[in-house]
Design a protein that fits this description.
This protein is α/β, with parallel strands linked by helices. The chain has twelve helices and ten strands. Helix content is 42%, strand content 15%. Strands 1-2-3-6-7-8-9-10 form an eight-stranded parallel β-barrel, surrounded by four helices. A two-stranded antiparallel sheet has the order 4-5. The radius of gyration is 19 Å and the shape is globular. 38% of the residues are buried.
């Protein structure tokens, strides 16, 4: 049994929601769990409650709202009424209030809107989640964005600031997106930053061609390239936690081990300067 470490969040995107990965996570000290209303064909909340009701109180649980079932599979909406109902439904399906509710990829509904219209739409959605937190439907709220570039185009500094901003992280994130995230979280005065998808959706061949271990301070033992990529992702951009999806307890154990490594931040800064230089050339 490992001591709890809140830096690693077990993400359930693409997960089969088997009980064994949840028990393995707890044994490894991974006590943060992240899901979303549309995961597992919009059944994630109910399946978690069915298979692991006794385990859920031992996790800090975050979920996301913003996608809704439709005839075509899923549709996105920032309608405040729908968002509020989705938050209430999540608590009922899970059998407990989630600790955190995140607005799921708001850029999907903002695409193509004039900045003023997008700002109003996003502001009302954020106010709904902030209100849900005040009403006790969750402890904290935030925004999960796959592409922060469109959010930068909106004047967010006067909107309710999220407690948590979840963004893409790691070596496979382009410099334009990393810069947009930096601008966004500064302007919005977001609380914590959480990273997600540090392996870019599982492109393992990348780590056969690229060795990120020089970004760790020695001695880093026998850590693999994947472990080094995961640990360095906490600095691309700077994040307090990282959500990673896996159904393999062995892979999860390797990620826990990687948390003990120290990142060479000077090398990370040099890498970012090189990316900026390539963009300007």
């Amino acid at each position: 049994m490992h001591g709890a470490d809140a830096r690693l969040v077990l993400g359930l995107h693409r997960s089969r929601h088997h009980r064994d990965i949840l028990t393995a996570a707890l044994d490894l000290g991974v006590t943060a769990l992240d899901t979303a209303a549309p995961y597992l064909g919009f059944r994630s909340h109910a399946v978690l409650a069915e298979r692991a009701a006794d385990l859920l109180p031992r996790f800090t649980l975050s979920t996301k709202v913003g996608f809704f079932p439709s005839a075509g599979g899923a549709e996105h909406s920032l309608d405040p009424v729908r968002l509020r109902l989705a938050i209430e439904r999540a608590a009922k399906e899970l059998g407990r209030e989630p600790d955190t509710v995140l607005l799921h990829n708001p850029e999907r509904s903002l695409a193509g809107l004039p900045p003023a219209d997008g700002r109003a739409l996003l502001g009302n959605a954020c106010a709904t989640l902030a209100g849900a937190a005040r009403d006790g439907l969750c402890r904290t709220w935030g925004v999960s964005s796959w592409d922060t570039r469109s959010l930068v185009m909106i004047r967010v500094e006067d909107l309710p600031p999220p407690d948590i901003l979840m963004v893409r992280a790691g070596f496979l994130v382009g410099i334009d997106l990393l810069d947009a995230t930096t601008v966004l979280r500064t302007a919005w005065q977001a609380g914590e930053t959480w990273g997600m998808s540090p392996f870019g959706g599982g492109h393992r061949k990348v780590w056969e061609d690229f060795d990120p271990r020089p970004f760790l301070r020695p001695p880093h033992g026998a850590l693999s390239r994947v472990q080094a990529a995961f640990r360095t992702a906490f600095h691309l951009p700077s994040a307090s936690a990282m959500a990673v999806g896996t159904d393999d307890p062995g892979h999860l154990a390797q990620l826990v081990q990687a948390l003990g490594a120290e990142v060479d931040t000077a090398n990370v800064s040099q890498y970012l300067r090189a990316l900026h230089g390539l963009r300007q050339s």
